[in-house]
Amino acid sequence: MNKDISYESVLSRKNEIMKRAVGIDFSSYESGSIAFDYERMMRETGYTLGEMKEIQGYTGVGNTPLLELKNLTRLARILSSDGKGARIFIKDEAANPSGSFKARRAANAVYHAKKHGYKGVIAATSGNYGAAVASQAAMHGLKCIIVQECYDSKGLGQPEIIEKARKCEAYGAEVVQLTVGPELFYTFLKLLEETGYFNASLYTPFGIAGVETLGYELAIQFRERIGKDPDVVVCTNAGGGNLTGTARGLYKAGAESVKVIGASVNLQGLHMASDTQFNKKSFTTGHTGFGIPFATWPDRSDVPRSAARPLRYMDRYVTVSQGEVFYMTEALAQIEGLERGPAGNISLAAAFSIAQELNEDQIIVVQETEYTGAGKHIQPQLSFARDNGIEIRFGNPQDEIPGKNIIIPSHPQLIKTKELDLEKLKKSYIQNCIELNKVKEISSNDLDFLAQDTNTTLSFVRDVLADKNIVIHE
Amino acid sequence: MKVKKGSWVQIHNIVLKAENRAPQVPEDTKKVALELWVKGFLQEDGEIGSEVKVKTITGRIETGKLVAVNPTYHHGFGNFVPELLQIGLQLREILSGGETHE
User: Fold this and answer.
1) Where does the pLDDT of residue B102 fall: very low under 50, low under 70, confident under 90, or very high at 90 and above?
2) What is the pTM of this model?
3) Do residues A309 and A440 share a domain?
4) Which of A2, A134, A372, B59 has a 20 to 30 A CA-CA distance from A380?
């Protein structure tokens, strides 16, 4: 029987396609209202930390080096007041087989797909995750299709995304490239239905749990090397999985006092689904265009309930500018001898600024790096920006206007994170839960869930709900 | 240009016409089609610009307009961006004590 593959028809089959392609019955964790049982979902559908270490170890993923950035630390101390300037460390996740921490997420997802008899895996991603899934699929002998949002309507693509396509193809994957638009999801669903492959979503419990090993390793590596846990871990934040998984791993290691800070590159004013603005940005991930919408509505992802819930774990959320990240990427090469990034260096730019607020005896960690090379490098990205009419100049990065210019700091002391109002984001998430679920009243179970999901108190949630005239049945 | 069956080619097709774009997309995106490119082995002799069938590397059959033969990666390091040279020079000077902070 030939199924109707029109847009409306395929989207109406979304839930059945997803259930088969992910193998999780998300409805069994639902309460029927806002709340769902997050921890039970993670426990029953994910893997234990021990299992994950074994699964990842089997394909050479994880146990990446922890490097101390001594020259950047020295620079931070020269620029800050006396006694300030924490030691800066970086976890060299580029050492993973596919060149980024995404190998951890992919290792679990592809292992799970293989174990459950799927013949192939599909992922919708323009980023490092595609290469990670393709690499793992190659190791496990599964087929792999990566669906990318790649071009604008003139057929012009970001060099970084073109490079990711090349890397996926290098691992034997099929790459389906699309122009800008959220209807990528339609093509993605059609491919899942046509092939019967596993949806190696970034947001399943397997994927997120895969990052827990990163947080866990960090705690263990610091205890072995320095004899204590780090004070601050900075995570580049887009969909929230990196931060969620890392924080959960730190907790599993008992490192509960560590502050977890999310960092995104500021792309305020650029619409992510805009054809004309698509090539006006120089970052394809790790930016506020993903970070803020996913924090305030995590269930917008390609699974019904996302396992990435960053507001649960984020102690602070900061932004940096594109120019600041490019500067730090060059700095990492020039004074630390490490050519990495650029997207993975968003948290490095933030850490360099935050280190200057901390004391010399404190430790701040950048928990990832990523590979670099043709296309995926500051030279081609800046060159591409310049060709697309973006002004590039030295100055104060605080004056940068995304889509108009990239301002490279004229001095490293101008690198300063900007604070996002986390409380406002938490309120916005609660309001989205009310509006998107179209409810006028909620249960005490929902109330508890919202407090947990925002890492706030019942009274905080009550205040937000009171503003919306929502009745709580206690 | 004639292209032999079995050649490695890239094809292009329209997934959604402009008038069928999803309601939530921005106005500028609504004015253009959702387009797709994929690569595969050509199933019959064809020509650039003609409708063809390909078998992708995973074995799927896709149809579309033939746009390239042996599609090549053209990305590289772009044009040199001389501003970057200043960063290393500046940092080395600061670290060597050439510039003290006030």
Assistant:
1) very low
2) 0.95
3) no
4) A134
